[in-house]
Design the sequence.
């Protein structure tokens, strides 16, 4: 039976001409392969580098991935998918992928992957370079001496998909937050009309769709390059069945007379539509509430508990910082859907101009902002967002107060469970200052396995909070002792 492996590389943080969405591309491709193309997560090697996690030894990580794959890879039976998003260039005779530590020849990269002797090998190259004020991507075809024919001949199927021709540019766009080619590669999987009568999507159909859509999107200024040879019929992705979501009780034990003595709760679930997402939301927030209640159930005598529906309702100084942290994560790799959690651009006006706004309005003129600032926005009433927030205030000055909470929301490829805790410091009159926010992110795909996985999540937050409380209480005791012995 075929086992599918993948090496996925995305680089944003180039010293010259940094990019915005290559890591986003890489993460999205990994999610697509695991969610739709029967790749096991452990068989995908994601190599990414951006400002949040810069990785300079890209070449070393590539060879390390090949070495690990070789340990279990069965020649002529298993398959490999290679994806790259980052800078690329041509010197006129060959083309190169630009890593931080090297410029790697595309033919050489292909030969490394081909050394696995795979049954199927699929290469997607969305490479880029900076062009004046426009962020662009450019890649050249592998030159004739690079051995494409050799690669094609060595497997039952070899497919190449390049962003564009050697003389063309391919933009990455802020509106779609992807390279154009990668955007349409992902979109092809969701295009019902591409699947054949048996519900199968082949790599060839994906290539054709991408080539057409990218050409139209760019007004034929960017034409992807396709090479492929497939022996027989290769089902890359199988179409999902129609959605079935339901909760019901079924008997799982009876007595000798046949009477039901216990039941179990069953959930039938197939595809990621609105109903299934809402069910996963319900499971997520129920799990979080139960976990937090269980933790707070013992050991907090002398604390007053206050429950809030969301972080906007927390009546402490610094709650805006907590809201910003939640939104910043959702604006990064954990994209929320339907603009549930996002940063809004708010205009900034000159104070003098603000005074003139009523007059300008009468004259039918609109004031011009001097700039914009990011303001965190959360649609708390959206069915794809839930939260729980608890503040525990200590009546004992020797013990630190704290807050614990969590949000869960639906993102592009699944759901996000994000618990957090923070210290509530003394402002001189009461415990009223939020500080030292620590936040965690757990993600799951919208698939049947997640229903069982969510309640089994091990939340590290509780062990970390217990340790932090002990440290904070020691620090508080030291401060109080030092203050108590002061002589005026």
Sequence:
């Amino acid at each position: 039976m075929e086992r599918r492996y993948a090496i996925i590389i995305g680089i944003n943080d180039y010293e010259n001409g940094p990019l915005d969405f290559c890591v986003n591309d890489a993460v999205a491709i990994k999610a697509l392969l695991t969610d739709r193309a029967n790749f096991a997560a452990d068989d995908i090697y994601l190599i990414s580098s951006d400002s949040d996690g810069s990785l300079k030894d890209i070449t070393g990580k590539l060879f390390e991935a090949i070495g690990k794959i070789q340990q279990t890879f069965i020649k002529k039976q298993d398959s490999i998918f290679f994806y790259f998003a980052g800078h690329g260039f041509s010197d006129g005779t060959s083309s190169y992928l630009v890593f931080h530590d090297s410029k790697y020849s595309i033919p050489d990269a292909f030969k490394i992957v081909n050394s696995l002797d795979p049954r199927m090998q699929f290469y997607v190259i969305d490479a880029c370079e900076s062009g004046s004020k426009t962020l662009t991507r450019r890649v050249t075809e592998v030159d004739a001496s690079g051995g494409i024919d050799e690669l094609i001949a060595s497997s039952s199927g070899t497919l190449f998909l390049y962003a564009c021709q050697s003389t063309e540019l391919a933009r990455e766009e802020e509106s779609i937050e992807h390279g154009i080619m990668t955007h349409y590669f992902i979109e092809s999987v969701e295009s019902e009309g591409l699947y054949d009568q048996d519900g199968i999507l082949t790599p060839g159909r994906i290539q054709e769709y991408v080539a057409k859509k990218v050409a139209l999107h760019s007004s034929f200024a960017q034409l992807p390059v396709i090479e492929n040879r497939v022996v027989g019929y290769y089902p890359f992705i199988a179409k999902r069945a129609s959605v079935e979501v339901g909760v019901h009780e079924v008997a799982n034990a009876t007595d000798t007379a046949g009477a039901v003595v216990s039941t179990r709760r069953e959930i039938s679930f197939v595809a990621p539509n609105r109903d299934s997402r809402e069910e996963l939301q319900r499971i997520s927030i129920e799990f979080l509430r139960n976990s937090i209640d269980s933790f707070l159930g013992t050991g907090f005598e002398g604390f007053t508990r206050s429950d809030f529906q969301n972080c906007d309702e927390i009546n402490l100084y610094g709650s805006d910082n907590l809201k910003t942290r939640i939104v910043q994560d959702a604006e990064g790799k954990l994209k929320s859907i339907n603009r549930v959690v996002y940063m809004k651009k708010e205009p900034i006006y000159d104070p003098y101009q603000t005074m003139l706004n009523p007059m300008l309005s009468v004259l039918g003129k609109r004031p011009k902002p001097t700039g914009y600032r990011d303001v965190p926005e959360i649609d708390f009433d959206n069915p794809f967002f839930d939260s729980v927030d608890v503040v525990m205030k200590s009546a004992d000055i020797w013990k630190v107060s704290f807050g614990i909470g969590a949000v869960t929301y639906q993102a592009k490829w699944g759901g996000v469970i994000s618990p957090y805790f923070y210290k509530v410091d003394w402002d001189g009159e009461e415990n009223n200052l939020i500080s030292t926010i620590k936040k965690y992110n757990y993600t799951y795909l919208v698939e049947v396995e997640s229903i069982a996985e969510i309640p089994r999540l091990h939340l590290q937050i509780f062990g970390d909070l217990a340790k932090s409380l002990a440290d904070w209480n020691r620090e508080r005791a030291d401060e109080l002792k030092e203050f108590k012995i002061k002589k005026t």
Remarks:
- The chain has eleven helices and 23 strands.
- The two ends are 81 Å apart (CA to CA).
- The chain has three domains: 4-238, 241-271, 274-340+379-481.
